[in-house]
């Protein structure tokens, strides 16, 4: 089964920048496909996890946290319908955060950040290594998303739900139907 790789904190704010498409080409022996600019990859022929992880680490031009999930776990998210059938509110972005391992801390869900007043991040569910929620496009949003590490007791990296949908389309073999993922689909940035 395919693997999904999520790199933490790359190509954000000019830090730890690299070209994901070139990175995927460098790992072509594993049939790697780049999804977006935030360091998300579908690995269609990973072979041995240890061998793939070693090749991945050797190719990274900088040190960063790497979260690897099995493709079937990501596909299972589709059947859970974490957001229900209701369309998102205007100027609200749905997201998935992937924890480095199942959270050692279980906060009471749902919750919003900041806790009082107008929220910028709202967590609506969590299952194993996955945290589901919505955020509003605002410059302070990324700071609130960063608090998920402390709240769940593990490192987290966050992707727009559009990126998750593109991953699912690749896993199901209909990548041509996947919506393109724009660079602006990161927290706090508006699309161009």
Describe this structure in words.
Helices cover 27% and strands 24% of the residues. By secondary structure, the protein is an alpha+beta fold. The protein has 2 domains: 3-75 and 163-177, Alpha-Beta Plaits (2-Layer Sandwich); 83-161, Alpha-Beta Plaits (2-Layer Sandwich), CATH 3.30.70. The strands form 2 sheets. A 5-stranded antiparallel beta sheet has the order 6-7-8-5-9. Strands 2-3-1-4 form a 4-stranded antiparallel beta sheet. The radius of gyration is 16 Å and the shape is globular.
Helices and strands in order:
Layout: E1 3-7, H1 20-26, E2 32-34, E3 40-43, H2 49-59, E4 66-70, H3 71-80, E5 92-99, E6 111-113, E7 121-127, E8 130-136, H4 141-146, H5 148-152, E9 156-160, H6 161-172
Antiparallel strand pairs: 1-3, 1-4, 2-3, 5-8, 5-9, 6-7, 7-8
Helix pairs in contact: 3-6
SSE sequence, one letter per element: EHEEHEHEEEEHHEH
Give the integer mean of the pLDDT values: 86
Annotated CATH topology of the largest domain: Alpha-Beta Plaits
Report the structural category.
alpha+beta
Q: What's the overall geometry?
A: globular
Give the terminus-to-terminus CA distance.
36 Å
Q: Please give the CATH class of the largest domain.
A: Alpha Beta
The percent range for helix content is 25-40%
Low-confidence stretches: 175-192
How many strands? 9
Strand content: 15-25%
Which sheet architecture does the biggest sheet show? 5 strands, antiparallel
Count of alpha/pi helices? 6
- Label the CATH architecture of the largest domain: 2-Layer Sandwich
Rg, Cα atoms, Å: 16 Å
Kindly report the spatial arrangement of strands forming the biggest sheet: 6-7-8-5-9
Number of separate domains: 2
């Amino acid at each position: 089964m395919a693997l999904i790789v999520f790199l933490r904190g790359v190509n954000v704010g000019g830090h730890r920048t690299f070209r994901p498409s070139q990175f995927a080409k460098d790992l072509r022996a594993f049939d790697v496909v780049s999804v977006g600019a935030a360091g998300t990859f579908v690995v269609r022929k990973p072979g041995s996890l240890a061998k793939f992880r070693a090749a991945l680490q050797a190719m990274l031009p900088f040190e960063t946290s790497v979260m690897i999930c099995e493709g079937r776990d990501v596909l299972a998210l589709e059947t859970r319908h974490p957001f229900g059938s209701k369309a998102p509110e205007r100027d609200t972005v749905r997201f998935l955060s992937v924890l480095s391992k199942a959270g050692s801390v279980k906060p009471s869900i749902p919750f919003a950040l900041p806790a009082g007043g107008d929220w910028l991040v709202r967590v609506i569910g969590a299952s194993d290594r996955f945290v589901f929620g919505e955020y509003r496009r605002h410059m302070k949003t990324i700071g609130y998303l960063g608090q998920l590490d402390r709240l769940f007791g593990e490192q987290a990296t966050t992707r727009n739900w559009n990126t998750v949908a593109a991953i699912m389309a690749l896993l199901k073999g209909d990548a041509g139907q996947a919506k393109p993922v724009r660079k602006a689909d990161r927290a706090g940035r508006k699309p161009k």
